[in-house]
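User: My advisor asked me to double-check a structure prediction for Imidazoleglycerol-phosphate dehydratase before group meeting. I don't want to rely on an old file, so could you generate it fresh from this sequence?
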Amino acid sequence: MTDRTAAVTRETAETEIEVTLDVDGDGDATIDTGIGFFDHMLESFATHGLFDLTVSCDGDLEIDDHHTVEDVAITIGEALEQALGDKRGIERFADRRVPLDEAIAGVVLDISGRPYFEFDGEFSQASVGELTSHMARHFLRSLAMNAGLTLHAEVTGENAHHEIEALFKCLARALDDATRIDDRRADVASTKGTL
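Assistant: Sure, here is a fresh prediction for Imidazoleglycerol-phosphate dehydratase from the sequence you gave:
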């Protein structure tokens, strides 16, 4: 197996971000975005996807959480796309459901190279800590657009903390499934010969 790692930086007038990602890691995470609950979700994402992930973000949190969450998602998406390279041998597709108490999240994805995003569900509270709940949906969209994923996600529940955490865990498990190498496959999983 080739080394499936990437390091990406992103600097704008709104954020300065450094991300490193190892798709075949142990779930180690060092996260600092300035948004406590978002840090917790990214740590959960790394743990449940078995990704080694570092994220450092200095964002304009004096305005709100939007630029930080969006730009971190863009940067992780770019890192994932780079780390997977030509995607030779990956499973490509995944379908997962993950519960957290009363909440259930579902993610169906295709590492297709054709970005698409659909979301079904509402969050039960407007925010969790300093994270605006709807930014969890925006994180998924921004990640999908920049990693080249077709991503369908859904969530139900009664507690936004549980709903968002179930989504991040579910996304991690689905990406872990879809990025796994199938030793029987010498090429990409496409009749086109490329993804």
